[in-house]
Specification:
heterodimer, A: mainly alpha, 14 helices, B: 2 domains, 6-stranded mixed beta sheet, 4-stranded antiparallel beta sheet, 9 helices, globular
């Protein structure tokens, strides 16, 4: 039916439009709120003053809070939220399992180990970011190689290998925590593992933003192929898909995104699992529409949660704790509502 | 002239250096308009054979030619433009709409970085029309009956616009009405010029719908030819290990049919 076809395309565009407006609203709110309230007009004038010749009627501290603290943190929240959500959706299709998150192949376990190692030996934030990124990639590489050793169902072997590698790196992280200095190092490791966007700076964004953006872009470009993989390995091959290459591309993109996200934000759980489900509730299971929807919902969600994390209490709440605290009940609700299928 | 598909000395084994041979030395050919019915007991490698020809499994020995071209030297998408494969029914974890699934048949014609166009969607709708389930286009696939799901997969295979369609036991798990509906679709497709290979557990289905039949047993293709010649009491007894009568039914049926008995040896 062409009319029904037309209607569903219009529906998809309307959803994307509404979500884009929602994201802008959440982002604006996030810029306004904080220990220091900055009025929307003030924000516009500060941005304008950086491109237009204007007299600055505000203190440099206000400008610095907006441009050097809130803006990079907002960018980090949007990129990490969008990146983890879209990787989660892609992985759920790839593994044909709606209960999978981007962390399934061991990226966060590896990154956590790298960060703990860096805190133990170097104790500075740059080393933490670099080592967590490198070990996140390394963990997934190990998982991938391990899964290829067995000549059996590749997808199942990937999941099992991910569990093995994740367990190894988690044990390593525990060992480091055990030997770490309980006064200094141990709390920083624990706090880092809980996740926080507190450290996001403009310098980080220059390095990390391109990695996450490229990952998201490639996943969006091949999003229809993920539908084919979701039908199963054999079906996809019979449809002429080079499954090994597409699978490797999805894993590479999701891993780069997750490792980059973990390196600036620590381990932020649940978002890659929950947001794709919210996306399916809004837009259905077709990845052609679902992936762009998860990008927008994920970005808005993490920025909103991060804004709550830094404004709700006098002390900042670790965002990883909050995403689980908010995500778990949402997921429970979705499970009830969605009994007929994903 | 080359036949549509010709298979020469095909063999396949699982495991390192051919530890577990499944079948060997299988040769046959299929022309446009043929319905080639592959029979044989459980676990004899019918599915594996079909997956080799569909390019789903790799690592077979021997040669498979599609229109005279060796498929080992063709890209996966090129093979999928010529040969489509209907797997045994299975579940989808996501409630894709029937139309979305049938559009997936367009995959070999669509660039990796692209999505289906309106033309692809129209071809998918036409395929749904051909198999008679256009009214299900907007139903989630998790809410289909076994027969509807099988027809959906056939429509998807049809949307590939192949010259040869391979069906792996398309009538298993279906009631009698759906079995015959599937056979009717298969027969119509062949009459429109498609070559068909289907595996089946029902020798009667070969009498109903096939132009060619073969029995795969013990890793070898023992008999092949017209259904009349292949499906005999002796051949079925050898393949399935039971006593079977093959009788011609006249009157309005006018075909042969198989009647298995509970005897342990021919009376």
């Amino acid at each position: 039916m062409p009319s029904a076809e037309h209607k569903s395309a219009v529906g998809a565009n309307r959803i994307l439009f509404i979500l884009a407006i929602l994201l802008v609203a959440v982002a604006t709110t996030s810029m306004i709120l904080g220990h220091l309230y900055i009025a929307p007009g003030q924000i516009l004038r500060i941005f304008a003053a950086n491109v237009l010749p204007m007299e600055r009627t505000w203190s440099p501290a206000v400008e610095s809070i907006l441009l050097d603290v809130r803006l990079p943190r907002l960018m980090a929240g949007m990129l990490v939220g969008a990146g983890l959500s879209v990787s989660g959706a892609a992985f759920q299709g790839l593994f044909r399992n709606p209960l999978v998150s981007p962390h399934i192949l061991g990226v966060s376990a590896g990154a956590g180990f790298g960060a703990a190692l860096a805190i133990l030996f170097f104790g500075n934030i740059i080393a933490v970011q670099i080592l967590s990124f490198v070990f996140g990639l390394l963990a997934v590489l190990l998982t991938y190689c391990l899964s290829r050793v067995y000549r059996s169902t590749p997808v199942l072997m990937l999941v099992l290998s991910g569990i093995i590698v994740g367990a190894l790196f988690s044990a390593g992280t525990s060992l480091i925590q055990y030997v770490a200095d309980p006064a200094n190092e141990m709390p920083s490791i624990v706090f880092w593992l809980l996740g926080s966007l507190n450290n996001a700076s403009n310098r980080d964004m220059v390095v990390v933003a391109p990695i996450i953006l490229v990952g998201i872009t490639v996943l969006l470009l091949i999003r229809w192929q993920i539908n084919l993989l979701a039908m199963g390995e054999e079906d996809a091959r019979a449809l002429g898909v080079d499954t090994t290459r597409i699978r490797a591309t999805v894993i590479l993109c999701a891993t780069m995104i997750a490792a980059a996200a973990v390196s600036i934000g620590g381990i932020i759980g649940w978002i890659g699992l929950v947001i794709p489900h919210i996306g399916r509730l809004l837009a259905g299971p077709d990845n052609k529409i679902l992936l762009p929807v998860t990008v927008l919902v994920g970005a808005a969600y993490l920025v909103a949660v991060d804004t709550i994390a830094r404004t709700a209490m006098a002390m900042e709440i670790p965002i990883g704790v909050l995403t689980s605290l908010v995500g778990a009940p949402i997921f429970a609700y979705l499970l009830r509502k969605n009994r007929s299928g994903w | 002239m080359n036949p549509l598909l010709s298979v020469h000395n095909l063999g396949f084994s699982y495991g390192e250096d051919g530890a577990r041979p499944i079948f060997s030395d299988v040769s046959f050919s299929v022309a446009s308009g043929d319905v080639f019915c592959l029979l044989g007991p459980n676990g004899t490698g019918k599915s594996t054979l079909l997956k080799c020809i569909s390019n789903v499994l790799h690592g077979w020995q021997g040669k498979i030619f599609l229109d005279g071209r060796d498929i080992a030297h063709m890209k996966p998408a090129e093979v999928a433009k010529g040969i489509s494969y209907v797997p045994q029914s299975q579940q989808s974890p996501f409630p894709f709409l029937v139309h979305d699934i049938v559009v997936m048949g367009r995959a070999p014609h669509i660039n990796v970085f692209s999505s289906p166009t309106q033309k692809d969607r129209d071809i998918a709708l036409a395929a749904l029309e051909t198999v008679g389930i256009r009214h299900l286009a907007h139903r989630p696939c998790t809410m289909l009956s076994g027969g509807e799901w099988q027809l959906t997969l056939i429509a998807r295979a049809l949307a590939q616009q192949p010259r040869l369609m391979i069906l792996d036991e398309p009538t298993s798990h279906l009631d009698m009405g759906n079995q015959v509906r599937i056979l009717r679709v298969v027969r119509n497709l062949a009459e429109q010029g498609l070559g068909i290979i289907m595996a089946s557990h029902f020798p009667d289905h070969a009498f109903i719908a096939a132009t060619e039949a073969a029995i795969l047993n013990g890793g070898l293709m023992l008999h092949k030819g017209r259904p009349d010649e292949v499906i005999t009491a002796e051949n079925l007894e050898a393949a399935y290990g039971i006593v079977v009568k093959v009788l011609h039914i006249g009157a309005e049926v006018n075909r042969k049919a198989c009647f298995p008995t509970l005897h342990t040896s021919a009376p």
